[in-house]
Amino acid sequence: MLYPQRFSQFTREHADTVAALLCGLLLFLGWFALHLGALGLALLLLPAAYVIGGYESAREGLTTLFKEKELDVDLLMIVAAIGAASLGLWRREYHLIIDGAILILIFAISGALEGYAMQRTERSIRSLMSLTPDTARVLHQGREEEIPISQLKVGDEIVVKPGELIPTDGIILSGYSTLNQAAITGESLPVEKTVGAEVFAGTLNGYGGLQIKVHKPAQSSLIVRVIRLVEQAKTQAPPSQEFTLRFEKGYAKVIVVAGILLATLPPFLWGWDWETTIYRALTFLVVASPCALMAAIMPTLLSGIANGARQGILFKNGAQLEKIGKVQAIAFDKTGTLTTGQVQVFQVISVSEYTQCDVLKTAASVEFYSEHPIGKAIVQAAGETVRVLAVPVESKLLNPKGNLDWVGAVQVQAIPGQGIVGIAQEQQVIVGNAIFVQQYVTNLPEELREMAQSLEQEGKTVVWVAQGNRGVEVIGIIAIADEVRVEAAVTITRLKKLGIEQIVMLTGDNQETAYSIAKAVGIDRVYAQLLPEDKLNVIRRLQQQYQTVAMVGDGINDAPALAQASVGIAMGISGSDVALETADIVLMADRLEKIAVAMHLGRRSQSIVKQNIFVALSFIMLLLVGNFLGNINLPIGVIGHEGSTVLVTLSGLRLLK
Description:
Blueprint: H1 2-13, H2 15-36, H3 39-67, H4 73-91, H5 95-126, E1 135-140, E2 143-148, E3 157-160, E4 170-174, E5 177-180, H6 182-185, E6 191-193, E7 198-199, E8 204-205, E9 210-214, H7 222-235, H8 239-264, H9 266-269, H10 274-287, H11 291-294, H12 298-310, E10 313-315, H13 318-324, E11 329-333, H14 334-338, E12 344-350, H15 356-367, H16 373-381, E13 393-395, E14 399-404, E15 410-415, E16 419-424, E17 427-432, H17 434-437, H18 446-457, E18 461-468, E19 473-481, H19 488-497, E20 502-506, H20 511-521, E21 525-527, H21 532-546, E22 549-553, H22 559-564, E23 567-571, H23 577-582, E24 585-587, H24 594-629, H25 634-652
Parallel strand pairs: 11-20, 11-22, 20-21, 22-23, 23-24
Antiparallel strand pairs: 1-2, 1-3, 3-9, 4-7, 4-9, 5-6, 5-8, 10-24, 12-19, 13-14, 15-16, 16-17, 17-18, 18-19
Helix pairs in contact: 2-3, 2-5, 3-4, 3-5, 4-5, 4-10, 5-12, 5-25, 8-10, 10-24, 10-25, 12-13, 12-24, 12-25, 13-24, 15-16, 24-25
């Protein structure tokens, strides 16, 4: 029973190849029978070759004709083959039936080869789907229980042993290990992970056992989103492919009309005999078909998408791979993009009536609900790190002997790019930049202004804190320090070498801090103190001047600019869900140097597509000239036509390397 099952599986997986082999065998037997003079046997075998080799093409061609009311290249091939066979029967020149069968065979072989070529790209993409195990080992009342991934819930604690794949995204509760994240983020070296670190589904655990807490639904994990977006990319045609598809529909109609004219006029105009006329018309149908032109684009772009995925660059569709190669200007967000986003409280300064702890716990009461890196840094400094509820905790940074008894605020509202407000202990609390806080207070203390200006000149971000019942007053400032990414300056240098005409920084931070960071990484043009809509307007102005503009960001406040940009690029790990959904390209490991790699991929894909289109059109022109001069027959025309199609398909697969 095992062998029939394997044979059945093989025929399902390689149906096109099996059909081509059977077609070739029947063609050979039919030719041999014709050679021996067994006409009846030949006329039995050759139609079988036509049916087996041409069934799939005929089905697709007729489906397109009846459902979409459009002519299809597949149908033209079948018409040409049947026309050759009919001409052979009519004139009793049976070698023409052989010619038609050869056309069917070569078309079937070409289809099988194209299928295998595309499967290679598919395998590179689908390999992502094998990165997650089907089950997870969950701790339940002290016992380990294996359950399907789909049944995991937020809050479950799972155990991952050395050498196992991480089943879903989570936070390490206990244990220490190195994780191989190459398949997800493109990082070549294993990364050390310990308590509090986030781990991703599909990464390979090293030598240490880990206990992990599930902090998001399994269907929201990074790898699942990657798979979903890559699957979406496969189904979306980029603008160049949409153009060629529209071109094909009109072109096929032109071919049919020209074929009819070529099959009827030459005997009257040039005195051709009818056999030559019809034969040349059928050959014209074959050599003029734009199969190679259709294959010039998508294999290349899908190969580029697969290549990018292997390097930690996720293109959501082929259009973005095309556009990234045309970018002339690029804008960077500051916090979490050019900087690590792992900000820390550097200094807390209070007015005379308040202490540093008062300032910190007041800010933490509202920032507890914020997902902004600055808000998280303030909460962490106040002592709240992992727990969900705001309870009295020890502040190791500022108050090693006592506790900060702060309570979470209510009616909290965050204003992206400006600040956050809320009610804590019956007092209004305002935390944000100076301009935002000034909307609620009459004036800012002069001594704090001077200190804030000095800190900002050093590259620190200053957050103002105010509170009050009836009258709101400033109680202090918090200086936040953010580390510039090590690779930021190298990335900017590479982008300039690639010929990017304009590189700018967009930030909601103050001028001094922005210029300090920009100087460190080599950016000359800075737009500071921007609201989300301001960033959007800057992108629009850049597009008017440079047409194709990229935007790199990670936060909710970057989402409008990411959506407006020709190419939106989000940071995959530190980026917010809104930014990830809005962006066109995701850097899985937050590695800025991958932007230059993505641009190189985009430019190389453009170059290969142009080469493929040139080759495809050249073959069509040469074959057309050869047909009218009478130097090629139907099989040679088919070989040239299908050979060019396979050639450009294989050419596109160069991007897999």
